[in-house]
Amino acid sequence: IGPSGAGKSTFLDFLHEALGHENVSAVTLSQLLGPKGEYYVAELHHKLANLADEGIALDGSYKGIELLKNV
Fold first, then answer.
1. What is the number of other CB atoms lying within 10 angstroms of the CB of residue 36?
2. Which helix (H) or strand (E) holds 49?
3. CB neighbours of residue 31 within 10 Å
């Protein structure tokens, strides 16, 4: 969350490098709540962090949060 160009991606890139690629996953909330959710949950096993872009819809809403509310 924040303005474009504020360094969010740079921070996530740094965090990814600091933790090590083998310790980081990038599973979105949409993937976790989708039809193959169990597969994606397994991707989180033994990871230190999940650094995923949840994506903001054009209207500014969080698509993943809407999916979670429907569960």
1. 9
2. strand 49-50
3. 18
